[in-house]
Amino acid sequence: MNARLQTMVGLAPMAAARDPAWLPHRYDPSQDAIQFLPVPRAMHQQVTFITDEYLPKGLASIVLPRTQAKIGTPSEAPLHFVFHSAFCCSTMLARAFERPGWAMGLKEPVILNDIVGWRRRGGQGADMATVLDDVLALLARPFAPGEAVIVKPSNIVNCLAAAILTLRPNARAVLLHAPLRTYLGSIARKGMDGRLWVRTLLQGLMDDKLVDFGFTPRDYLGLTDMQAAAVGWLAQQGLFARLIEQFGPKRVATIDSAAVTGDPSATMRALATLFGLPLEVATLDEILAGPAFTRHSKLETAFTAGDRAQEVADGNRLHAPEIEMVAHWAEVVAETMNVPVVLPAPLLSR
């Protein structure tokens, strides 16, 4: 973010803070300022994530003091969340809620990652709960009257899930994960990139104090890449279980990626009920026939449920011995540390 706050004239700051087409993109705690980027609805629908990697380069930004941005925040839309542990169809679900007049899906807003980074560095400056509250209000600006906003954060934001649900008592969340062996297969298929990613994830989870399985720091260094992946998966399962215990099954439900792809119709009906959204049969049919469920969420190529199942099966078969050994090890750790491999509060039991 530009270190110098931009000076705005007249009603321009108020207009940017009120307009959902100006995305609250970054938060700078050193100046307690928010950077906005012009991201209209059509652009949200075109990009995989609303991150610098996927947004068009060179977008003209506006930087406002947070307190000034707060003044312009209008009434909030209903705000709900898809928290996830990665590689589990979360982007698919977020895209399914990109429907004018019904809901808007926000895919991995970076400003929430900024708050996580600020927290990990010690959070000096403004009160963090107040900042998070203001950011949530900006994310909840409705694109059209009557719409809900469904936020799918990056999974590094899971450490803020309890705070988010506390600040927004009317918000509901689905906790989405891949089954253990499916998750390990996804990591294995990604090669070196996947194995490096899980170690970065594990480091972040340790910074967030979410990893406590009786190992010493030296023990974690000795884990294989796939064991590190399994520990990260277990840590997030444990966090999800605590969220259910804290907020209850009326506000928080769980589902895994196999259930999503196995019965997308039942999944969308149950999510609509959880989020309090009307869903007519014709609307559901259009969603299921739309790009969320018929195209690869990252490659934008045709991609059916059968293609997904084949991809998982091929990857698991190639890496089957390693996956099975690590999955068995992780299940023993889970039983010893009382971490549920199968989460309570299933979405599809509603």
Compose a concise summary of this entry.
49% of the residues lie in helices and 12% in strands. The chain is of the alpha/beta class and 350 residues long.
Please describe the topology of this protein.
Elements: H1 12-18, E1 22-28, E2 33-38, H2 41-46, E3 62-65, H3 66-71, E4 79-84, H4 90-96, E5 103-107, H5 110-120, H6 128-139, E6 148-152, H7 161-167, E7 173-177, H8 180-189, H9 191-207, H10 217-221, H11 225-247, E8 252-256, H12 257-262, H13 264-274, H14 281-289, H15 291-294, H16 305-318, H17 320-337
Parallel strand pairs: 4-6, 4-7, 5-6, 7-8
Antiparallel strand pairs: 1-2, 2-3
The CATH topology label of the domain at 75-102 and 147-349 is Rossmann fold
Shape: globular
Helix content: 40-55%
- Element order, helices and strands? HEEHEHEHEHHEHEHHHHEHHHHHH
Count up the helices.
Answer: 17
**From the 3D coordinates, which CATH architecture of the domain at 75-102 and 147-349 would you assign?**
3-Layer(aba) Sandwich
> Which structural category fits the helices and strands?
alpha/beta
Beginning-to-end CA distance, first to last residue: 44 Å
The largest sheet is: 5 strands, parallel
Mean pLDDT, as a whole number?
91
Beta fraction of the residues?
Answer: 5-15%
- Based on CA atoms alone, the radius of gyration comes out at 20 Å
Number of strands: 8
**Runs with pLDDT <50, length 5+?**
2-11
Query: Numbering strands along the chain, what is their spatial order in the largest sheet?
Result: 5-6-4-7-8
CATH class of the domain at 75-102 and 147-349: Alpha Beta
